[in-house]
């Protein structure tokens, strides 16, 4: 599957993969990092693996917990 999730879908995916409730508004707030959301590195790895496997995220995209969900959304869509 190579479909780009909407911000709402991505928030749900992050919530499912990490157990941390993430809403769309937190996802698109560029100042909120994954660490701010209490998403740890293992949870983030799970999110990235799911996105690479099912949503066309390029294999070379890597993120840290100090980056924002908005940056991930940009990597997925090519725009903020």
Annotation keywords:
about 80 residues; mainly alpha; globular
Secondary structure elements and pairings:
Layout (H helix, E strand, L loop, with lengths): L6 H12 L5 H5 L12 H14 L14 H9 L3
Structure description:
With 80 residues, the chain is mainly α. It has helices at residues 7-18, 24-28, 41-54, 69-77. The mean pLDDT is 88.
Number of strands: 0
Structural classification: mainly alpha
Query: Low-confidence segments, ≥5 residues, pLDDT <50?
Result: none
Question: What is the strand content?
Answer: under 5%
Helix content: 40-55%
Radius of gyration based on Cα positions:
11 Å
The number of distinct helices, counting runs of at least 4 residues, comes to 4
Oligomer: single chain
Helix and strand run:
HHHH
- Give the integer mean of the pLDDT values: 88
Query: In this structure, how is the largest beta sheet organized?
Result: none
Shape: globular
First-last Cα distance: 22 Å
In brief, what are we looking at here?
The chain has helices spanning 7-18, 24-28, 41-54, 69-77. It has 80 residues and is mainly α.
């Amino acid at each position: 599957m190579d479909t780009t999730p909407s911000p709402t879908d991505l928030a749900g995916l992050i919530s499912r993969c990490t157990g941390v409730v993430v809403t769309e508004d937190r996802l698109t707030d560029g100042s909120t990092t994954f660490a701010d959301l209490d998403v740890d590195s293992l949870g983030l790895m799970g999110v990235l693996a799911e996105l690479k496997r099912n949503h066309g995220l390029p294999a070379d995209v890597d993120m840290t917990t100090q980056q924002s969900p908005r940056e991930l959304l940009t990597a997925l869509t090519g725009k903020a």
